[in-house]
Amino acid sequence: MIKRFCLALFNNLGCISLVLLITSCLPNEYRINKQPLGADQISPSISGNGRKLVFLIESNGYKRIQLEDISSRRIIPLRYLSRYRIVGTPAISWNGRYIAASVKIGSNIIVMIEDLIAGKLYRFSLLGGSLPTYLSLSPDASKLVVYLNMNDKRIFEFFDLTKKLEPDLPKRLGNQFSI
Q1: Measured distance CA(46)–CA(26) in Å, rounded
Q2: How far apart are CA 20 and CA 13, in angstroms?
Q3: Domain ranges of the chain
Q4: Among 24, 29, 111, 127, which is least packed by CB within 10 angstroms?
Q5: Among 173, 168, 167, 113, which Cα is nearest to 145's?
Q6: CATH for 33-177?
Q7: Dihedral sign, CA of 116, 118, 120, 124?
Q8: What values do phi and psi take at 20, rounded to 5?
Q9: CB of 108 within 8 A of CB of 84?
Q10: Contact, 41 vs 35, CB < 8 A?
């Protein structure tokens, strides 16, 4: 339908409107790879360099995490986090080396960070009796903050990751950052 409209518009307006025509006909949305019927894609987080997207797929009340390379549309397997029940929003570092998520193990909820380069999993316990709602990983992966609901009080719990994780910094080309 849109293509037919764009072609009709082009035929009526001529070559001068070609740039306008092309930009108006391009989609402004990113479509995630096909998911099973009834599955919803929620809680997206994009890497700082804009190359990777981590999000949750929710189906029948169960959430699983997925990482995708945006340019190739290739799904990047997660060795550890894909095994757990995700309960909060995911987060991703600058280059997509680290993926963080709140997971439920039995009756406990903890935060896990998967290192895709080193192939390691890091676990972080939360304040007792708290329910994580959101988390955020700093772009260089030096800090993590978790937004908690604890006895009807909302608090932030901070984690210093500098002694656990290597920095995930933008790649440099000379004195300029690459994009």
Answers
A1: 21
A2: 10
A3: 1-30, 33-177
A4: 29
A5: 113
A6: 2.120.10.30
A7: negative
A8: -60, -40
A9: no
A10: yes
The pair of three-digit structure tokens given for residue 133, joined into one six-digit string = 């709602």
CB atoms within 10 A of CB 110: 16
Question: Residue 137's closest CA among 177, 104, 179, 92?
Answer: 92
Tokens of 58: 């929710």
Q: Provide CB contacts within 8 A for 10, sequence distance 6+.
A: 17, 18, 21
Contact status, residue 55 vs residue 39, Cβ threshold 8 Å: no
Q: Tell me how long the chain is.
A: 179
b/e 125-152 (16+ beta carbons within 10 angstroms → b): ebeeebebeebebbbbbbebebbbeeee
Do residues 171 and 178 lie in contact, with contact meaning Cβ atoms separated by under 8 Å?
yes
- Residue 49 to residue 68: CA distance in whole angstroms: 14
Residue 24 DSSP symbol: H
pLDDT (tens, 9 = 90+) of the chain, 179 residues, equals 444 444 443 344 443 333 333 334 434 455 555 554 456 788 899 999 999 999 999 888 888 999 999 999 999 999 999 999 998 899 999 999 999 999 999 888 999 999 999 999 999 999 887 888 899 999 999 999 999 988 888 999 999 999 999 999 987 644 444 44
Start-to-end CA distance of the chain, whole Å, equals 35
Enter the tokens of residue 94: 């600058």
